[in-house]
Amino acid sequence: MSERVSWEAYFMNIAKEVATRSTCDRKSVGAVIVRDKNILSTGYNGSIKGLPHCDEAGHEMVDGHCVRTTHAEANAIAQAAKNGARVDEAEIFVTVSPCYNCFKIIANAGINTIYYEEFYRDERILKHASEAGIKLVHLN
């Protein structure tokens, strides 16, 4: 009998699959919001609903970043809000650690744990997570 994956690996595997829907070829990111081992919402990085995506219209670059996309974490929180799912005291699994702006959105939404696989650029989240009582978990 094969060994079952942990809950953390299970939800991160789902986040990786969600990332395959990304429409920005610079970085594919997936996010899954979970409470009590139930998926509340998912999100991936892509353009504003109904508008052309990077893979169709090209990138909108500002300071070396594509700003055409809405990040996976923000999309997951927006989907939860749209569908009436409360994310307060939930956890989020993200394939890549949140940028500073997404971290602030996650914190203000009341999500208390962030699991990520790849650390991405912004070390401010390390300090502010500790200050805000948000658990950051790097899954290898």
Which descriptor suits the 3D outline? globular
Strand order of the largest sheet: 2-1-5-6-7
- Which structural class best describes the helix and strand composition? alpha/beta
Rounded to the nearest angstrom, the distance between the terminal CA atoms is 24 Å
Average of the residue pLDDT scores: 94
The low-confidence parts are: none
Instruction: Tell me the total number of β-strands.
Output: 7
Please estimate the helix content: 25-40%
Helix tally?
5
> Approximately what portion of the residues adopt beta-strand conformation?
15-25%
Q: Helix and strand string, N-terminal first?
A: HEEHEEHEHEHE
Largest sheet: 5 strands, mixed
Cα gyration radius (Å): 15 Å
Molecular structure report:
- With 140 residues, the chain is an alpha/beta fold.
- 34% of the residues lie in helices and 24% in strands.
- The chain is built from 5 helices and 7 strands.
- It has a 5-stranded mixed β-sheet, with helices on both faces. Strands 3-4 form a two-stranded antiparallel sheet.
- The protein is globular, with a radius of gyration of 15 Å.
- The model has no long low-confidence stretch (mean pLDDT 94).
Record the SSE blueprint.
Layout: H1 7-19, E1 30-35, E2 38-44, H2 54-57, E3 61-62, E4 65-66, H3 72-82, E5 91-96, H4 100-109, E6 113-118, H5 124-132, E7 135-138
Parallel strand pairs: 5-6, 6-7
Antiparallel strand pairs: 1-2, 1-5, 3-4
Compact summary:
With 140 residues, the protein is an alpha/beta fold. Helix content is 34%, strand content 24%.
